[in-house]
Amino acid sequence: PTRLQQMYLTQDWWTLWIGLLSFILAVAITFIVPLEGGGSSRIKYIVPQPMRWNSNPLEAWDLYSIVGTILMLGMFLGFYLLSLVAMGKLTITNPGKAYAKGFVTLCVVAIIAFWIGTQSWCKKNGLGYAIWSIIIGMIIGNSPLTSGDRLKNVKLTAKYGEYFIKCSLVLLAVEFSILGELGLPAIAVAWGASPITLVSSYLIGTRLFKMKTIPALLMATGATWCGASAISAIAAVVNAPNNETVVCIGIVAAGTVIFTFAQPYFALLVGMDHSVAGAWIGGSIDQTGNVIASAAIISDEATEIAGIVKIILNSGLGILATLVALWWQTRASEGQKKEFSWLFLWDKFPKFVLGYFICSGILTIIIGQGIPEGEALQFAVHSMSRWWFSIAFVALGISTNLKELYKNSKSTGVIKLYLVSNSIDIVLSFFAAWIFFG
């Protein structure tokens, strides 16, 4: 009975339910909204959101995206308030009205960040919604105008940043069959170099640099896997403090922008084979958008291979989170070995990972039917995930103290570990790409 009650009373389970409700919403939108007449852009933007624009910001919106975004975020608010009611979080001091006002404000900021992030130059250069969400959130949270009791409702809701991240991680679902379709060489590059780099970087951070476990794990994961998404997933598994999560995301995002241009021009300078260069970039540069932008500097061939390698790497995020969760719950605590228990493991196992596999299974079945909605559903689910991520990153930014952030970035050694991790990742990914694509 206790475990059954936990299924509707705890945050851990509600991350799964909100993720699944959002997935159902994505499926409903995909099958209700007509795809005919909208072309490829309607499929890509089937979930309402600002579209890519150049010089005129109004190009990002049409009637469907404006009305749809308002209605969709209204549904998100409903999911959030439903979870608060079920978990007994609403009180006289903090009523539902306060949480609703705070959540609406987060949504408005998320829309602005999303809007800026879809601008062509920003998108091409890796300045997407994630970094803008955090930056704008930090400006709001650290401004003298918002100090004290000002924006009390926003700060109240911003404390749920990690909760929103876990909800969004359920929606990072992938089609399982993609692993067999994309070939052994791409799988070898993606899943060969990155795990080795992750483990070695973690050991260097904890043993050589004497870093604490959580920041070393977050930075090793973010630098070697897929940037902000990987950091967010692992942070949710190990219950990392918000400030450590934000530090790692910020450093990885900044470094990724540099390597997005450095690696392709180096490949061109030395006359690297385009297929090798594409696999190298796909396996070593963080964030899918940056991978495509980087490989596109070289050629279409490099872009195609880089995208394939990156997709495979991203598809392993759920498996990575599962392995880290198993390791985290069975590892030795400070001086005392935990007694292994399958029930204990189940209780501590992050339920959003379960949601990820459920959504991936459903996605695989629907896409396997070969219907036009299958392709649109992939875009829809990932767009829904980005909306939750944007709201979460705004919340993390607001709840982050910049003075502490600066102090932690210097004292924890994460910058140093990022440089080491990324260097190892670049070298190993190159050798893997050379062996399997050369």
Q: What tags apply to this protein structure?
A:
438 residues; mainly alpha; 23 helices
Structure, explained:
With 438 residues, the chain is mostly helical. The model is unreliable at 332-336 (pLDDT under 50). It has 23 helices and no strands. It has helices at residues 2-9, 11-32, 39-44, 63-87, 96-117, 120-124, 129-142, 152-158, 161-169, 178-181, 184-208, 213-224, 228-238, 242-269, 274-284, 288-296, 300-315, 317-330, 342-348, 351-367, 372-398, 402-411, 414-437. Helices cover 76% and strands 0% of the residues. The radius of gyration is 21 Å and the shape is globular. The longest helix has 28 residues, at 242-269.
Summarize the structure in short.
The chain is mainly α. It has helices at residues 2-9, 11-32, 39-44, 63-87, 96-117, 120-124, 129-142, 152-158, 161-169, 178-181, 184-208, 213-224, 228-238, 242-269, 274-284, 288-296, 300-315, 317-330, 342-348, 351-367, 372-398, 402-411, 414-437.
Our count of helices gives 23
Shape: globular
Helix amount: over 70%
Radius of gyration: 21 Å
User: Strand fraction band?
Assistant: under 5%
Span between termini: 58 Å
Mean pLDDT across all residues, rounded? 85
Low-confidence stretches: 332-336
Which secondary-structure class do the elements indicate? Answer: mainly alpha
Protein topology:
Elements: H1 2-9, H2 11-32, H3 39-44, H4 63-87, H5 96-117, H6 120-124, H7 129-142, H8 152-158, H9 161-169, H10 178-181, H11 184-208, H12 213-224, H13 228-238, H14 242-269, H15 274-284, H16 288-296, H17 300-315, H18 317-330, H19 342-348, H20 351-367, H21 372-398, H22 402-411, H23 414-437
Helix pairs in contact: 1-2, 2-4, 2-9, 2-20, 2-21, 4-5, 5-7, 5-8, 5-21, 7-21, 8-21, 9-13, 9-21, 11-12, 11-15, 11-17, 11-23, 12-13, 12-14, 12-23, 13-14, 13-18, 14-16, 14-22, 15-16, 15-17, 15-23, 16-17
